[in-house]
Write a sequence for this structure.
């Protein structure tokens, strides 16, 4: 299963999750919602209108908002 991580450059939670996922050897696509057109709208759709990052959108259509690396690994293992 693959996923996209929606982020911003200034988000500390995004930086931490990216570091932890990289340390765990998990590959993902990163999309900055302040740079990529319509990315913020995608994030808002799965977060009740909020532009909360990090938001992960998985290939099965599910999403996670600000998850721990353990939750992401659990999802990828299922």
């Amino acid at each position: 299963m693959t996923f996209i991580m929606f982020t911003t450059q200034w988000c500390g939670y995004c930086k931490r999750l990216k570091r932890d996922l990289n340390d765990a050897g998990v590959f993902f696509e990163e999309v900055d919602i302040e740079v990529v057109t319509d990315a913020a709208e995608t994030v808002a759709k799965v977060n009740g209108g909020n532009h909360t990052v990090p938001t992960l959108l998985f290939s099965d259509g599910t999403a996670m908002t600000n998850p721990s690396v353990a939750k992401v690994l659990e999802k990828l293992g299922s």
In short: The helical segments are 12-23, 39-46, 69-77. The CA atoms of residues 11 and 73 lie 21 Å apart. The first strand starts at residue 3 and ends at 7.
